[in-house]
Design goal:
This is Distal membrane-arm assembly complex protein 2. The chain has eight helices and seven strands, in the order H-H-H-H-E-E-E-E-H-E-H-E-H-E-H. By secondary structure, the chain is α/β, with parallel strands linked by helices.
């Protein structure tokens, strides 16, 4: 049975139970139900409304996520890829710096930003800070033309996942610094895709809850990216502990 039919079936079952319960209590000559029974009936009657509200909230959230990460084709067509990328970053309350410029363009606490970035029509972006934004795999398409991107900060981004990391190969010739710390959806399998970023000099993989055996993962990352400085804080099972366990196993085998 499909999900919509299952959901409809559950709703019908609840309705039948409520009707039966109401008839029993209305036709019974006994005293009114106890307080906790009346409370349970009230909650049961309201459960459907609450479930619908939660479902609507989830759908609205996903719709807003898709809307924020839509491809800015219109802006790119009329203003060029650099302005389109800049506008996308600012619309997600991120920040960036153009090549050859020291000034950073960011949003303020109210989400407002200066439109002065429009004065740099043909200037590529060198650094982008998308920390704690809702950038996702689809939205990354708005940055794919930025082949001069050297720094990308994605700290605490809830929608950055393994598929997102696999698409970072677009910047394999330019990216030197990558921060993916505190991203809850990244797993060990996704980190393997970073092997394509041979030019990385700094990589931050701190506090990734989806990583199992972080010590071993760090060893693998160091082998894949020998010229990269890797930061991995926030793990109890660190690299030193892994090395100690390996030494203990070797001693036991002897």
């Amino acid at each position: 049975m499909s999900a919509p039919l299952t959901y409809l079936h559950r709703c019908c079952q609840r309705s039948v139970l409520l009707v039966v319960a109401r008839r029993q209590w209305s036709t019974s000559s006994a005293s009114p139900p106890h307080l906790h029974r009346r409370l349970l009936l009230f909650l049961t009657q309201r459960f459907y409304d609450v479930e619908m509200l939660l479902r609507w909230r989830y759908q609205a959230k996903r719709s807003q996520l898709q809307k924020k990460n839509v491809y800015y084709s219109y802006t790119q067509r009329f203003y060029g890829p650099d302005i389109a990328s800049a506008y996308y970053i600012l619309s997600l309350k991120g920040g960036f710096r153009y090549v050859g410029q020291s000034e950073w363009f960011r949003t303020n606490q109210r989400g407002k930003f200066s439109w002065d970035f429009l004065n740099h029509k043909n200037t590529p972006i060198e650094e982008a800070d998308m920390s704690y934004t809702i950038i996702n795999y689809t939205g990354l398409e708005n940055l794919e033309r930025q082949r001069s991107l050297r720094t990308l900060k994605l700290k605490g981004c809830p929608e950055v996942d393994d598929w997102f990391l696999a698409r970072l190969h677009l910047f394999q010739d330019s990216l030197e610094e990558l921060d993916i710390s505190h991203c809850p959806r990244i797993t060990t399998g996704g980190l393997a895709a970073l092997r394509n970023l041979k030019g990385l000099k700094h990589l931050n993989v701190s506090s990734l809850p989806g990583i199992s055996n972080p010590g071993l993962v760090i060893i693998l990352l160091e082998e894949m990216l020998p010229l990269c400085q890797i930061t991995a804080n926030g793990y109890d099972h660190n690299l030193r502990k892994v090395e100690e366990e390996e030494e203990e196993q070797m001693q036991r085998q002897r």
